[in-house]
Amino acid sequence: MSPFKGQTGLKRILNATGYSFDGLRAAYRGEAAFRQLVLLNVVLIPLAFVFDVSKGERAVMIAVCLLALIVELLNSAVEAAIDRISLDLHPLSKNAKDMGSAAQFVSLCLIASVWLVILFG
User: Fold this and answer.
1) Global confidence as pTM
2) Any binding-site annotation on 57?
3) Of residues 93, 64, 73, 63, the one with CA closest to residue 30
4) How far lies 75's CA from each of 12, 50, 62, 82, 92, in Å?
5) Which end of the chain has fewer CB atoms surrounding its CB within 10 Å, N or C?
6) How far apart are CA 66 and CA 74, in angstroms?
């Protein structure tokens, strides 16, 4: 067991939930891209219920929207860790940040692709 591990059982779950909300709060306050994706989700998720699509298609339409939020959280975490290590320009730091950005780009392309295929495919 790691000496850095905290509580177990219900206490651990409650702590983890608090940390998760802290992370969401930090992302919303500190990351414009996250706020933009939240707005996109506020528009697209209710819109998914307007279209005459199957339950499975609706679930996929919603899932890809939420996936973009997950990718942005991970991208922001990578950027924060890189910046914590050093603000100096370094090719590996640039690569890590660029790859996180590329992952977000792919997730946005996924949203567009899924929605277009379901609605017009």
Assistant:
1) 0.89
2) no
3) 73
4) 25, 31, 20, 11, 15
5) N
6) 13
CA 51-57-60 angle, to 5 degrees, is 115
- pLDDT, tens digit (0-9, with 9 covering 90-100), for 19-74: 999 999 999 999 999 999 999 999 999 999 999 999 999 999 999 999 999 999 99
The answer to whether 79 is a known ligand-binding residue is yes
Q: Is 28 annotated as a binding residue?
A: no
Yes or no: say if 3 and 35 are a contact pair by the CB < 8 Å rule: no
Q: What is the pLDDT of residues 65-119, one digit of tens each?
A: 999 999 999 999 999 999 999 999 999 999 999 999 999 999 999 999 999 999 9
Would you please indicate which residues are annotated as catalytic (active-site) residues? 72
Q: So where are the chain's domains? A: 32-120
Is 103 exposed, middle or buried (CB count within 10 Å of its CB: 0-12, 13-18, 19+)? Answer: middle
